TrEMBL record:
Pfam (any one): Cyclin
Native source organism of the sequence: Aspergillus sclerotioniger CBS 115572
Transmembrane portions of the chain: none
Gene Ontology cellular-component terms listed: cyclin-dependent protein kinase holoenzyme complex; nucleus
Protein name: Cyclin-domain-containing protein
UniProt GO MF annotations: cyclin-dependent protein serine/threonine kinase regulator activity; protein kinase binding
Region: Disordered, residue numbers: 46-68
Amino acid sequence: MNGQSPSIIARLAEIPPTSALELLCVGIGTLLKSTAEEMSHPQVAAVPIPGPRTQGDSTSSGESTPIRVTGLHCPSTSYDEVGRHLKQQSVLSKRFLSRREPPITLEEYLLRLHQFCPMSTGVYLATSMYIMRIATVERVIVVSRRNMHRLVLAGLRVAMKTLEDLSYSHSRVAKVGGVTEQELSKLEISFCFLADFELRVDAKMLADQVRLLQGINPCEKTPR
């Protein structure tokens, strides 16, 4: 975080890792609530149904206005590329789904991770930023109770490698996280692709994330 404002870095340094862990829970809880609201109130766009057209329906001046369609043609290969991209995103997002909802809460899961693999304040905040971005900005994954544990685990692993000079061994993180080493590798790679490899963070971005999460109702912080 070279070149960053010393005051911002100092404020971030005052935040204990466990407090950043709680803020991560706040962010995931907000995404869960948003998912539940979207499922209970699906928004369906109204599609106008054309009826029989009468002379009174016309607003034309009577002059025929030529419509140029040149430049509107889209090669079929573009649709193929979009289709492949969407299919790839769907496959990647499904890798985070557990067969059933884990019996442990996300906060308990994170505290277990922190007990055996303590991480820094920056790692927890960056993970929150990554997940909120891919869920609300890129909209390439929907956070649910069946995928949030694996999603957070992968995010922490990626953030750790991005921000820290040293990180825990792959086998240690996999064991504490409750997945196989092969699963952790797949989750980590999938997370990077969903994030489109936009993993750079700086002190200002983390400080902005803190302000965002601190503005959320603390009563909704812990996903159950």
